[in-house]
């Protein structure tokens, strides 16, 4: 219960904490992504700036070595110039591969000036060495490079400006991210304090309310149960609960004692009803037998026992035996000796036992059997007793000329089922509720134990026995046994 109260009072604060945690995670992810994008942009700008600077360096190398080659045009000097030209071409290609749209015009100027400068170095190169300084200066002035270096420096400055802007933006974003995380951390700490305070206050309030209810329960128990030996009142909720549990335990013990007393009283009442029923069932046959025997033993005017008298005595003795046997079946619970049987065979044997009784009335007994065996694990004698009892009751409830229907089939769920239906008046509503109660009977000579024993046998086998009235009239008893209980006999 304490866990329920805690969850009930703290879930808004837990949700708030979850939102703060999600905000922190989202902010961290966004900041990391932003920092990564800025770092890539800065590296890109730095690479562009390095390419522009590298092109300027290679141009200066080409300019210097071209002048040296003009003064000393040897094969080695010319090879150095060709190598410088190739390196300048490679640096220009690197710039061209990563140029932006806004720098495309400036690149076109650089490429045009560079192409012109290379063309001038070819036809304008001196045929032989320039020996005087004046001629060397004149030749150098005739091949200027300042017009080419100016746009290169402008391109490098642009790239440097972009890189500086990216770094400034990165610093600004970093500062903003720090402020956001600081705000989230402060909000989380403040939220934790508020959550703890609110949860503690809510728990205290609910504990106080629960304490009031516990005291009310204690007072109610004091009034209804009576004075008990209890501890003095205490403010601790756990001890109050312990006291209530002790009182409830005492109440349960008293109720159990009362239930045992009531059970003994009911048992005595049941014994009284049983004794009355047995006395009634045994006294009537004994009275008839006593009169016949006294007539045969009179000193004078003895009445000889005829075959009819002897048959009557036998019937009364059988009646007393049936009464005693029903009492024994109700009182004892013999252990089951279950073996595999075919339910159809058990029903056929029970029908054969009841057929003579049905023919004397007369009542027709119709049997519908399943086409395939219905394997059950059952105690043969007890199951036959159950089925015979259902058939005897159906025959007794059916008027002469009526019929009793027995159906043996497999239910939709696969459980073996036996239904016994009759065409009698059905079960009265006032009898339906106590049909399986001991000593409840509508027969003038019955003890009311047959159906009670039958239901007990069904339950001992793991099945069920139910009774209903058919829409077309008459009663129907249904026996359902567990499916797959055993194998074919």
Automatic annotation (TrEMBL):
GO molecular function, one term: ATP binding
Catalytic activity: ATP + protein L-histidine = ADP + protein N-phospho-L-histidine
UniProt KW RNA-binding keyword: no
SMART domains: HATPase_c (SM00387), HisKA (SM00388)
Keyword vocabulary terms for this entry: ATP-binding, Kinase, Nucleotide-binding, Phosphoprotein, Transferase, Two-component regulatory system
Record-annotated Histidine kinase domain positions: 277-485
InterPro entries documented for this protein: HATPase_C_sf (IPR036890), HATPase_dom (IPR003594), His_kinase_dom (IPR005467), HisK_dim/P_dom (IPR003661), HisK_dim/P_sf (IPR036097), Sig_transdc_His_kin-like_C (IPR004358)
EC numbers, comma separated: 2.7.13.3
Pfam families in alphabetical order: HATPase_c, HisKA
Signal peptide bounds: none
PROSITE patterns linked to this entry: HIS_KIN
Enzymatic class: transferase
This protein's name: histidine kinase
């Amino acid at each position: 219960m304490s866990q329920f109260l805690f969850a009930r009072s703290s879930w808004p604060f837990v949700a708030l904490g979850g939102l703060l945690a999600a905000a922190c995670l989202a902010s961290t992810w966004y900041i990391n992504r932003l920092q990564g994008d800025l770092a890539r942009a800065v590296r890109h700008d730095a690479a562009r700036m390095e390419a522009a600077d590298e092109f300027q360096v290679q141009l200066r190398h080409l300019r210097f070595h071209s002048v040296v080659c003009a003064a000393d045009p040897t094969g080695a000097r010319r090879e150095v110039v060709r190598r410088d030209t190739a390196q300048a071409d490679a640096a220009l290609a690197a710039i061209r591969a990563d140029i932006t749209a806004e720098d495309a015009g400036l690149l076109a100027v650089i490429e045009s000036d560079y192409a012109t400068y290379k063309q001038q170095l070819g036809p304008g190169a001196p045929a032989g060495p320039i020996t005087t300084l004046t001629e060397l200066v004149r030749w150098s002035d005739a091949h200027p490079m300042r017009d080419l270096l100016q746009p290169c420096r402008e391109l490098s400055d642009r790239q440097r400006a972009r890189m500086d802007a990216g770094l400034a933006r990165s610093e600004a974003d970093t500062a903003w991210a720090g402020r956001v995380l600081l705000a989230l951390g402060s909000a989380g700490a403040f939220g934790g304090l508020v959550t703890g305070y609110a949860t503690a206050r809510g728990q205290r309030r609910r504990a106080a309310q629960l304490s009031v209810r516990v005291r009310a329960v204690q007072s109610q128990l004091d009034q209804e149960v009576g004075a008990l030996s209890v501890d003095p009142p205490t403010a601790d909720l756990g001890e109050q609960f312990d006291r209530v549990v002790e009182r409830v335990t005492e109440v349960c013990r008293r109720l159990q004692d009362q239930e045992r007393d009531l059970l003994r009283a009911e048992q005595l009442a049941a014994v009284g009803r049983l004794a009355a029923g047995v006395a009634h069932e045994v006294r009537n046959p004994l009275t008839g037998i006593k009169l016949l025997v006294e007539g045969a033993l009179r000193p004078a005017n003895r009445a000889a026992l005829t075959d009819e008298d002897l048959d009557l005595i036998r019937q009364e003795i059988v009646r007393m035996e049936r009464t005693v046997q029903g009492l024994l079946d109700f009182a004892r619970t013999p252990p089951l000796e279950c073996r595999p049987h075919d339910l159809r065979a058990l029903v056929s044997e029970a029908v054969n036992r009841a057929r003579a009784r049905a023919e004397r009335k007369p009542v027709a007994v119709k049997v519908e059997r399943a086409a395939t065996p219905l394997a059950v694990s059952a105690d043969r004698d007890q199951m036959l007793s159950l089925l015979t009892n259902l058939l005897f009751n159906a025959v007794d409830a059916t008027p002469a000329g009526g019929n009793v229907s027995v159906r043996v089939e497999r239910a939709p769920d696969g459980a073996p089922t036996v239904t016994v239906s009759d065409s009698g008046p059905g079960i009265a509503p006032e009898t339906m509720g106590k049909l399986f109660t001991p000593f409840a009977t509508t027969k003038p000579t019955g003890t009311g134990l047959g159906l009670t024993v039958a239901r007990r046998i069904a339950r001992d086998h793991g099945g069920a026995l139910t009774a209903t009235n058919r829409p077309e009239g008459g009663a129907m008893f249904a026996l359902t046994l567990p499916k797959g209980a055993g194998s074919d006999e």
